[in-house]
Structures are given as C-alpha cells and as structure tokens.
C-alpha cells in the first residue's frame, strides 16, 4: 500500500481516470488521493468514494508528495505560479500528463525540481494504460517509485523525452485509433448479418485476443497472421483487399499527421511565449 499522497490537479477525463485507477487497484486508500477542479460537480462520484475533492490546488499540494499536472496546457502556467510558493524540491515530485509540455517548460516556471513527463491513456481507469515516462536528472532518485505507480495502472515504459511526441500519438491518441478500428469491424459485422451487440462483442474480444497473443508469445504480428492465412483462403483475400484500399498506409499517415499536429502546437506555443 502506497502512503505517499497523490494530488491530481485538473481532473478532466484523464485525471478522473487516473484517480479511478489508483483507487480500484487497491494500492491507495481514498484519503490518500486528492483531486482538484475549478468546478467539482463532475467529481461527485469520486467524492462519494472518499477521495479528497477540492477546488483548492494549494491545499492538495500541501498534503501530497506526488503532484500530477492534468490541466489544459493554456492553464498550466497559472497553476504552477499558484502552487510555486508552497512547492518544496525535497518533498514534491511533479508529474505532468500534458501533451506538448516539456520538462524544461515546467522547470522554467518552478525552478530545479524533480519533474517527470508522462503520457498515459484513458485505459488507466481499468489498469490497462500504456504509459511512457521521461525523467529529468533530479527525478532519477524517484524513478522506481514513479514506475511502480504507473505499473499499477497498466504498463510503464521509460523513454527519452524527445520521443514523447511520438509516444503521445501511439499511447494517448492510439486509444481513439483502436476504437475506430473496432467500430469499423463492428459495422462490417452488421453488414454481414450479425446484430450490432454481437458484432461488437466479437470485434472487442478478437482485438483483445490478438494483443494477448503478441504479449504472451512475444511474436511479430506477421508471424501470427501467417498462422491463419492459407493459400487462396478467405483471410488472405480479405487482408489483400484491405491493403489494396490503403489500410496500412492510412494508419501510418494518420499517426504522422497527429505527430505533425503536436509539433505544430509546440512551435505555436514557443512563438507566443517568445
């Protein structure tokens, strides 16, 4: 059981998912999780479960060691300036889940602090997030503890910070991309005669099974594809038709487009702050 309190500042959809994940995993008691938002009406469910819900960021920071920054990028500077007077580099660890905000951006406002940049996704609420982490030098001493927190919520991977934009596309946006694929399979199943509920159940379980095969077998996708494709069979016919229609190309272009948008927004913020 973790005893170092966690503050989640700016609990939108992702922040609420993190809070739900930490609680339901059993690694934290409700009273060890502080959640803030300017309007706490949408946090009533968390409050009913015993979490510390407040509009006061400074109150949450005073009572916590790990400070998760989950606010919108436009609000980050004001929030950091608000809590800066009570931040203690010997006590607090700042964990940012804000896309496009670098460790240097945060350090320029608060000074020399242990800062961790993280990119989870909303599956964190059900302990199935893929979370990428990048640490500054001062945060090296808490790397193990931070990894343990996010491993409680799925899988955590430490990467170099310059790869975080790409990780954002695969981790965070990737949830939406996979959902869209499952939706497309469901729609196809309906066209083939299944009712919507059954088609979605099949699509979801097949997606889960495919991921589990790769995880357990530690294999390449093409190795698993080869096991189910026979000469002149229905599987290879379907795969080839999808590729003729640009499946892989469309996915790669979508990833590259999302990545480009992240970099464009980063450049825009840098110009505005110059």
Automatic annotation (TrEMBL):
Entry's localization field: Cytoplasm
MF term (GO), any: pyrroline-5-carboxylate reductase activity
A Gene Ontology biological process term: L-proline biosynthetic process
Pathway(s) it belongs to: Amino-acid biosynthesis; L-proline biosynthesis; L-proline from L-glutamate 5-semialdehyde: step 1/1
Boundaries of every Pyrroline-5-carboxylate reductase dimerisation domain copy: 161-261
UniProt: NADP(+) binding residues: 9-14
Annotated GO CC locations: cytoplasm
Keyword ATP-binding included in the entry's annotation: no
Recorded superkingdom: Bacteria
EC number: 1.5.1.2
Catalytic reaction annotation: L-proline + NAD(+) = (S)-1-pyrroline-5-carboxylate + NADH + 2 H(+); L-proline + NADP(+) = (S)-1-pyrroline-5-carboxylate + NADPH + 2 H(+)
Entries under Pfam families matching the protein: F420_oxidored (PF03807), P5CR_dimer (PF14748)
Domain Pyrroline-5-carboxylate reductase catalytic N-terminal positions: 6-100
Keywords, sorted A to Z: Amino-acid biosynthesis, Cytoplasm, NADP, Oxidoreductase, Proline biosynthesis
Predominant location: cytoplasm
Binding-site residues for NADPH, renumbered to this chain: 57
Record-stated family: Belongs to the pyrroline-5-carboxylate reductase family.
Purpose of the protein: Catalyzes the reduction of 1-pyrroline-5-carboxylate (PCA) to L-proline.
Name of this protein: Pyrroline-5-carboxylate reductase
Organism listed in the record: Pontibacter oryzae
UniProt gene name: proC
